[in-house]
Design goal:
By secondary structure, this protein is mainly β. The protein is built from no helices and eleven strands. Strands 2, 4, 5, 6, 9, 10 and 11 form a seven-stranded mixed beta sheet that branches. Strands 1-3-8-7 form a four-stranded antiparallel beta sheet, with no helix packed on it. Strand 9 and strand 10 form a beta hairpin. The relative contact order is 0.33.
Length: about 120
């Protein structure tokens, strides 16, 4: 069974930094894209950043220059968040797309980790 487990969320003051990590486990053969989405109260889930297996990255305009996504290995992805703003407050979800496991291809999500930016 494939699982994505996030860590690193928490409370931080405006201008501060946090680093989120996500590790995939299970009988995984390959993962094409890994990324981070977020959902704030009353809003739809939105893409924050994603990275392909070849290292190509994509960022939401609102986080460009502040957030950096990295692929530590085939099964892990991290998001370094600097210069955090109150509007970055949300639940952050790890995502793996085109993941090949023993049961076939699919998209998988983590359980989410809360990030709160407040003075």
């Amino acid at each position: 069974q494939v699982q994505l487990v996030e860590s690193g969320g928490g409370l931080v003051q405006p201008g501060g930094s946090l680093r989120l990590s996500c590790a995939a486990s299970g009988m995984i053969f390959s993962i094409n894209d890994m990324g981070w989405y977020r959902q704030a109260p009353g809003k739809t889930r939105e893409l924050v950043a994603k990275i392909t297996s070849s290292g190509s990255t994509q960022y939401a305009d609102s986080v460009k220059g502040r957030f950096t996504i990295s692929r530590d290995n085939v099964k892990t992805v991290s998001l370094q968040m600097n210069s955090l703003k109150p509007e970055d407050t949300a639940i952050y979800y790890c995502n793996a797309e085109r993941l090949q496991s023993a049961t076939g291809w699919g998209t998988h999500w983590g359980q989410g980790t809360q990030v709160t930016v407040s003075a």
